[in-house]
Amino acid sequence: MEQKEDKLKEVISHAKEYGYIFPSSEIYDGLAATYDYGQLGAELKNNIKSYWWKAMVQMHENIVGIDSSIFMHPKTWEASGHVDAFNDPLIDNKDSKKRYRADVLIEEHIEKINQKIEKEVEKGFKRFGESFDEVQFRATNPNVLRNAEKMQEIENRMRETLGKNDLEGVHQLISDLEIVCPISGSKNWTEVRQFNLMFSTELGSVAGDASTIYLRPETAQGIFVNFLNVQKSGRMKIPFGIAQIGKAFRNEIVARQFIFRMREFEQMEMQFFVRPGEEMKWYEYWKEARIKWHKALDLGEKNYRFHDHIKLAHYANAAADIEFNFPMGFKELEGIHSRTDYDLKQHEKFSGKKLQYFDPELNENYVPYVVETSVGLDRMFLSVLSASLKNEKLEDGSERVVLKLPAPLAPYKIAIMPLTKKDGLPEKAREIFDALKYDFLCQYDEKDSPGKRYRRQDAIGTPFCVMVDHQTMEDNTVTMRDRDTMLQERIAISDLNSKIASKVDMKFLLNK
Ligand code: ATP
Q1: pTM greater than 0.85
Q2: 369 CB within 6 A, ligand 1
Q3: Residue 433 near residue 413 (C-beta atoms within 8 A)
Q4: Which residues contact 298 (CB under 8 A, 6 or more apart)?
Q5: Which residues contact 345 (CB under 8 A, 6 or more apart)?
Q6: Atom of ligand 1 nearest to the CA of 374
């Protein structure tokens, strides 16, 4: 556990030191759970967006992308169910004045019991060694069984009370479990209240004329309300998809774990419109396509897993998460949901407009079913950054910190360095920089010793370094150093472009 926290801390400080992510408004001591992407962070983020957009839009002739506004007609959120049902149960501790999600407090309590079971299993393993039969032990050990039963009981009570919106019941459960506030250590809790996660503001400058509008909590609704506009103007035939990348806002009660859970974040969503009855086929198709997209980054096959939802949202008939092994453990990275015709039908009801498709092959009108893929851009960023950050022990006993980013996502593709600041080497290096800058984001670096410069480029994840030396002046060759192998090879300046492209071109990821 401690190790995991250390890893997250390491990622946070590395991100700050090298200009990937800064705490927002830091000179005013920051704003909770709000972060700014720095000069390298903005590049990495753009490259992730581009990888997604190319995979979804450019590689599919039946998917197009839009960019809808953050503000939408307030009725949108009544239709989508967010005004009535986008709530979290919250509870305050009267002594520490800290606010918690009631369901999270209970889940953490359940996890503590689970830890007891794991400890018991570990003890068994130590006692019996090689001959230890874990399955048998879990099925028969009285301590394990007692705790498993306890967990199940609590889970049932939580599900039942939350399901019925019985907030007094949730409060009673917290009291019965004697859950204390991690800060004050007291059991002095307020009642449980429902808290809507949408941010609201007022539209219009004249008081009284103003009406409440919301910052969108998801980008999907901007796609649904434009379904017919896109279908008609783009002459789209079902099945087809609409993709979008954009900001979303949720007033999360407990926002934490760096950029994993923020109040302002970015989503990359695609809604795929299909014939009713064909949604499960497409749901399976997109589950496979999306995990393949993630795994193509080579950040470790074992770092991804599916988590199928047992309890479905009111609009879904199937749902799964792609979870990633973040520094704090496996957590949701992307959701794939079969949303049925719920959203379009709701918008038909609330707007009084028909949102139907005439299927020329079937010769009939229908409201299409929808399969959604929704990935958090910031979570994607955290997955890439945390899995790429490595501390390596080198053969000579020294250590290096290296950011082994997938080369097509790296901010700088190449650093161009003159060995010394004289003898015309800087001029030659700048010439190379000017020739390559049309194709790649390059960095020119002449400060400090070559060793220090290489380490700096390793730390920011630049896949290649090119060193211009005295031999360059004679034969137009340079040494090119590979970030991952640290091997250097002598190559002609005229071959640089194709050599770099062969590693950093996004098409190698898209092709996998
Ligand atoms: P969680 O259960 O973690 O709150 P969710 O199931 O509410 O997430 P969705 O509504 O399915 O999330 O949103 C789709 C994606 O948007 C998520 O998979 C996640 O990557 C991202 N996301 C959701 N909430 C946040 C947030 N507060 N900060 C950053 N990313 C988020």
Answers
A1: yes
A2: no
A3: no
A4: 406
A5: 355, 367
A6: 14
C-beta 339 within 6 A of ligand 1: no
Pocket test for ligand 1, best of 332, 334, 372, 384 (most atoms within 8 A of CB): 332
Q: Going residue by residue through the chain (512 aa), what tens digit of pLDDT does each one get?
A: 446 678 999 999 999 999 999 999 999 999 988 999 999 999 999 999 999 999 999 999 999 999 999 999 999 999 999 998 888 899 999 999 999 999 989 999 998 999 999 999 999 989 888 888 999 999 999 999 999 999 999 999 998 998 888 999 999 999 999 999 999 999 999 999 999 999 999 887 666 556 789 999 999 999 999 999 999 999 999 999 999 999 999 998 887 799 999 999 999 999 999 999 999 999 999 999 999 999 999 999 999 999 988 767 778 889 999 999 999 999 999 999 999 999 999 999 999 999 999 999 999 999 999 999 999 999 999 999 999 999 999 988 999 999 999 999 999 999 999 999 999 999 999 999 999 999 999 999 999 999 999 999 999 999 999 999 999 999 999 999 999 999 999 999 999 999 999 999 999 999 98
Enter the tokens of residue 213.
Answer: 């509008």
Residues in the chain: 512
CA atoms of 109 and 107, how far apart (whole Å): 5
Round to whole Å and give the CA distance between 312 and 337: 9
Q: Measure 208 CA to ligand 1 centroid, in angstroms.
A: 35
Closest residue CA from atom 9 of ligand 1:
335
Rounded to 5 degrees, what are φ and ψ at 266?
Answer: -125, 140
Residue nearest to atom 19 of ligand 1 (CA): 376
Q: Is the CB of 453 under 6 A from ligand 1?
A: no
| CB-facing half-sphere around the CA of 267: CA atoms within 13 A | 27
Q: Is residue 479 within 6 Å of ligand 1 at its C-beta? A: no
Residue nearest to atom 21 of ligand 1 (CA): 376
